[in-house]
Write the structure tokens for this entry.
Amino acid sequence: MIASRDVPGPLPSSGPSDARAPGPGFDYLIVGAGFAGSVLAERLASQLGQRVLVVEKRPHIGGNAYDCYDDAGILIHPYGPHIFHTNSADVFEYLSQFTAWRPYQHRVLASVDGQLVPMPINLDTVNRLYGLNLTAHELSAYFESVAEQKEQIKTSEDVVVCKVGRDLYNKFFRGYTRKQWGLDPSELDASVTARVPTRTNRDDRYFTDTFQAMPLHGYTRMFEKMLRHPNIKVMLNTDYREVMQWVPWRHMVYTGPIDAFFDHRHGKLPYRSLRFERVTLPQERFQPVGTVNFPNDYAYTRVSEFKHLTGQAHAHTSVVYEYPCGEGDPYYPVPRPENAELYRRYEAETEGLQHVSFVGRLATYKYYNMDQVVAQALTTFKKLRARHEAGVRE
Ligand code: FAD
Ligand code: UDP
């Protein structure tokens, strides 16, 4: 049993607590200026008049969705290509308050057996790869004939071999997954490769969500607008532990890694990281689509060309190679049973902490896309608003 004094808490003398009775300090200390932290800062300030301090250890806002111009003047995503897509009208409408959009449908080709073929696997992928001329109906029958039977679909290997058989699994998924995660697909939850569908038609879009678009002037501009409120102060280059004892606050929203919050007392949660290698080339276009995947060759998994995503016109182009690695910034929670179990031990610790909300991909150890994090933050806001309206004092 861990005593509550062992975890961060608000200063006892944090003073009056709402905008009707302004006092020293802040109502909310928000750790992290990514989607989770920025959405909550914006909602709490604009809807409840709360005074919010956002503390971010990096030198910029936006978290992993941050974008900026490189030396050549090309808009890039320093933490890897971020493509916005969602089926949630609520999330899309919410973000639309802070940005206009550029419609963009992401397309991916995979380099397999010396060809560039559509990924997700579709009718053209199979026909081109095997030199066939199947119809959609015949492809369904083909998949059925090669699909393996399993009683239960548990792992990322099961998902794929039970849909498209072993050969396509080996060509498209096995090598990529082993590189990306440092694990065999049989060691990962089904949810990982289940992110990528299989199609029997010729649809070659990577996503089929209702809303698919990029912020017209980039993610960072969108975050700037979200955080532009007189009640929101942003402190960059600062770990929250440097200030939480000195700044009065009542409630914390924590969006960093949950195991770090508890000083890794149950052991480290595994995160997968990436090393990004960026190149600017003196040519307008480098590759035919936004991303080319390399499941079987090279140490990198994929190459993305930003101008496809952003629509920017420029005489040069910038591309990024993603090299997966074990050490570095925590980018991906690793979905597998033992990690979920370890996460649950940390989650249990949070239950006694009424003055801290844990939100986002790292704080809830979930392999969430941006829209899922926005949805989670909006749900957290509703809970905090209910407490506020009920007059709950921390
Ligand atoms: P983050 O963006 O990680 O923000 C957390 C912030 O907290 C960080 O800025 C961090 O510096 C800060 N922080 C942590 N600890 C502390 C501390 N102690 N003190 C102060 N600050 C702290 N999603 C999509 O929808 N589409 C995509 O195409 C897509 N592509 C991706 C590509 C890559 C390579 C990666 C890694 C992710 C991608 N995602 C994509 C997922 C997306 O990045 C996340 O869903 C989203 O950015 C998570 O937001 P967040 O606020 O939870 O976390
Ligand atoms: N994947 C694969 N081959 C591919 C694309 C994806 O094996 O060509 C697997 C891999 O395990 C990857 C997962 O499917 O991590 C999810 O892919 P996604 O493109 O959603 O990954 P992300 O964009 O989140 O890195």
